[in-house]
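Example record for the data management plan.
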Amino acid sequence: MPEWFNTPLIIIATMAVGTGLIKFGQWMGSVNSDRDVFKEFMRDIRNDIKEIRASITGIFARLPASPIAGESPYRLTDLGRAMSDSLGGRAWAERVAPSLSQLVRGREPYEVQEICFGYVRNEFTPTDEQDARIRACAYENALSRDQVLDVLAVELRDILLEVAEPATAA
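Corresponding structural encoding:
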């Protein structure tokens, strides 16, 4: 048997297997090293994402609340309803609606909405008392005057949509 171990083929095969095992060990060490680097990279990414999330949350926290939800159709948020209550928005809209009812008759809801927003922004002249309440509401809620007027426009639109006849399809 000893001569069997001394054949060049066995010696070459043994050296090849030994070299392969050494290379495999080096490769595994490299893979483990790469995995450690990758894990560290992923930890850094997670930390960056947490910082970005905190920054975004901070940005949104500084934005003023909106009185109108940006959905279709516009609707008042809880803040908008509270503002409308303090302004007497629903009662005001019920008083103004009869004067605009002929203008919106047969119109699509979007047209009624545009008419209401245009009326409130361009034609509505508040009394001194209403103007003081509008300014106070804007100040107390960190909103612009136009955002407060939008609350009145939505209230007016809702009243007019209740009394307006829908447009007929031609």
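Summary line stored alongside the record: The CA atoms of residues 34 and 40 lie 10 Å apart.
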